[in-house]
Write a structure and sequence with these properties.
This protein is about 60% helix and about 5% strand. The termini are far apart.
């Protein structure tokens, strides 16, 4: 008889009924017993519970029914025909299952399609149409399920399915898309006939897996076998050239594209721009871009990202304005690039515009651009805004968590960073090296010794991540902040890796803050042999000597600098007002401004100094800029670049707007104290990003806690 489909609707791949799986209960043939699978059949739902069932004979007082006499067995021809009809109905039900599978895949209900496919697996050999196999292949590709691929491909082989060229390419693509690249290569080698689609699928797979050398070998095979190439293949191979960083190979592909006349194709042109940009040939990338008859959004994104990648932020910003004026459409990737450039240039207003565009264009849930927003707001003092954007994200990747955690670390909110780390672990998001760098930095900046050591030890013991030099540097900073310099030395010597420049530099800075000149001299000697070109290490030692009156030793540091061709850069500070960035030097005469503005700036500095004196400010007796030599310090006097920039910002920005200050040197002790008092008397928030770290001044306190 016909097997009703309703009996199979409860089949689930992820459910397990041990009693049903027992062969003694369900005597399926061996070919139907799959390891790890089981099949539950939905039973009839009884109207009354079993506890209420009684014998009607006992209730009604009826006698048992008399036994019937056995009759002779007769063979009924009509019944035999009915049995044949039932087999036909079973065949029809199989066709119906295939039809239902195709409809479910068409409606993107892939898992339900595989639940029905399991019925075909139970029945064994059944003549499945090519269209059904094609639908199952599509479901595997969309689900990215290796298990489903093995089930479908195994069923094809057991049923003796012999695919033609189209289905062979589809099966190959299925293996590639689901990450089974080794099996895909074996299938490709066994194909009796290969065409451009076959080559494109396998080449794209190897490029996506980063096996660029194998991709080029296949490209050569294709060229020798078919003597032809599609524009899509060129775009993929240009991406492989970018991955190898080989400009020579990229130029050969460019020549091939020119000979075939496909260089004007949008995909090929965008691939060339991307390849030249990533290989460092930004001028060649710009030439290809300018040669395009029609510039697509992807082309604009690639050339702008190329300039930003190589540090040409201003040029990238100009291209963004050109893109806007050209009328090209802006997508989420354009906005993401804009935000990242703004992060580098501290363009607050531009980021606000990008944020508004994200909302206006419906990209509020787009993870790449919104993660860039979290990163920007975290770095420039808007940590609460960063948290708001973060919480609004429906999906969060590890970069999102790390960006917000790093923001908490930069602004001295170590407790919040640790809580966020614990929340991430509770959400079953696996941390990486950057995660631990962010949370350990937060602990070192905020002086959270106990939590810092607990997290550091959990890296290898709980999460199986081997600490790197950057993590050891955080722990050295934590020991130095606590004044445990001897323990820091012992920690460096016990580290299972060669101490790096940053590890010794962290100890040198701890010696500066703790006033340990002797140990500082020893550490400096270590640094001289490791990285003599790094100016900051010399500067720290120079100021240590100066602050303790060791003028002869300080002069020796200057002589060493001169002999190595290094010199101290003049202190410079930038402040953003509106969409313009203004720079100031220590003792700057502000010649770029008119007389009225100059008088206003210096008058504001004088007024601020008088006001903070009334609040108890006392100038440092020996006030030396860490990155500026003593002669300049004596000349500039009280008009350091930080004070001039802050004065200009206070005059030209509204009271509710936090000031964004950027410096090319480590802020000096006196200016740090001055900014603390200014934030107290004016009630303004100020974020200062110096050569060392971020300083978030608010209500007379700094996020660094006096240690930087």
């Amino acid at each position: 008889m016909e097997i009703p489909l309703a009996r199979y609707q409860s089949i689930r791949l992820d459910e397990r009924r041990d009693s049903y799986y027992n062969p003694k209960v369900f005597n399926f043939p061996p070919k139907f017993l799959f390891s790890g699978y089981d099949f539950s059949l939905r039973g009839r739902r009884w109207k009354n519970p079993f506890g209420r069932i009684t014998c009607s004979s006992a209730v009604q007082g009826l006698k048992p029914k008399p036994k019937l006499k056995p009759e002779k067995i007769r063979v009924d021809v009509e019944e035999s025909k009915a049995q044949v009809l039932d087999d036909t109905q079973i065949s029809k039900s199989g066709v119906s299952i295939c039809s239902q599978i195709e409809k479910l895949v068409l409606c993107n209900r892939f898992r339900e399609a595989f639940e029905l496919f399991e019925i075909l697996e139970i029945r064994g050999s059944f003549n499945v149409a090519v269209s059904t196999y094609d639908a199952l292949v599509e479901a595997c590709i969309r689900l990215r399920s290796i298990r489903c691929v093995k089930r479908v491909f195994g069923y094809m082989m057991s049923n003796g399915f012999e695919p033609e060229q189209y289905m062979m390419n589809r099966i190959l693509l299925m293996h590639v898309k689901c990450g089974m690249i080794i099996d895909a290569r074996r299938l490709f080698d066994e194909m009796p006939e290969r065409n451009l689609i076959s080559y494109n699928s396998i080449i794209s797979g190897f490029v996506n897996f980063g096996n660029y050398g194998e991709a080029f070998e296949l490209f050569k095979m294709m060229w020798e076998e078919l003597s032809d190439c599609e524009t899509h293949t060129f775009a993929v191979m240009l991406r492989a050239s970018s991955g190898l960083g080989s400009i020579y190979v990229g130029k050969q592909l460019h020549v091939c594209a020119l000979k075939l006349g496909v260089v004007d194709n949008t995909f090929v042109s965008c691939g060339l721009i991307d390849m030249y940009s990533k290989c460092g040939e930004i001028e060649d990338a710009r030439f290809v871009f300018e040669s395009m008859p029609e510039k697509s959004t992807v082309a604009w994104n690639n050339i702008i990202a190329g300039y930003a990648l190589h540090g040409y932020s201003e040029e990238a910003m100009c291209l963004l304005y050109e893109m806007r004026d050209s009328g090209a459409s802006v997508d989420q990737f354009t906005l993401s690039i804009m935000i990242r450039i703004s992060t580098r240039l501290a363009k607050i207003e531009l980021t606000k515009q990008a944020h508004a565009s994200l909302i206006r264009n419906g990209f509020e849930s787009e993870i790449v651009a919104n993660t860039a927003l979290v990163d920007f707001y975290s770095k420039w003092g808007r940590v609460d805004t960063a948290r708001y954007v973060f919480d609004k994200l429906p999906r969060k990747n590890i970069i999102s968590w790390n960006a917000l955690m790093g923001g908490y670390a930069n602004h001295g909110r170590g407790t919040d960073a640790v809580k966020l780390f614990e929340k991430m672990i509770a959400a079953n998001v696996a941390p990486n090296h950057v995660t631990f760098l962010a949370v350990l930095s937060a602990c070192s900046y905020s002086g959270l010794s106990e939590q810092g050591w607990e997290i550091f030890l959990s890296m290898s013991e709980v999460h199986g991540i081997k600490p790197r030099a950057m993590h050891y540097t955080c722990m050295i900073e934590l020991l130095g902040r606590d004044g445990l310099l001897d323990e820091a030395i012992a920690f460096i010597r016990r580290a299972p890796l060669t101490p790096t420049v940053n590890m010794w530099a962290a100890l040198l800075n701890a010696c500066r803050m703790q006033g340990n000149l002797e140990l500082g001299r020893v550490v400096a000697e270590k640094l001289y042999g490791m990285g003599p070109e790094k100016l900051g290490n010399y500067v720290v030692l120079y100021n240590m000597y100066n602050s303790m009156g060791k003028t002869a030793e300080a002069e020796g540091v200057l002589e060493t600098l001169e002999s190595k061709g290094l010199s101290m850069m003049p202190a410079c500070t930038w402040v953003e007002v509106g969409d313009q960035t203004h720079s100031f030097l220590s003792g700057d005469k502000c010649d770029s401004y008119d007389e009225a503005v100059k008088r206003e700036i210096y008058q504001k500095v004088d007024d601020l100094m008088e006001e903070i004196y009334e609040y108890g400010y006392l100038a440092e007796e020996r006030n030396l800029l860490p990155d500026v030599d003593e002669k300049e310090e004596e000349r500039v006097g009280r008009y350091h670049s930080e004070k001039l920039a802050i004065a200009y910002g206070l005059v030209n920005t509204p009271e509710w707007n936090p000031l964004q200050i950027t410096q090319n040197h480590r802020i000096c002790i006196d200016c740090h104290k001055v900014v603390e008092y200014i934030s107290l008397v004016t009630g303004r928030e100020m974020v200062v990003r110096d050569a060392s770290r971020f300083h978030h001044f608010k209500e007379g306190k700094c996020s660094c806690g006096g240690y930087w």
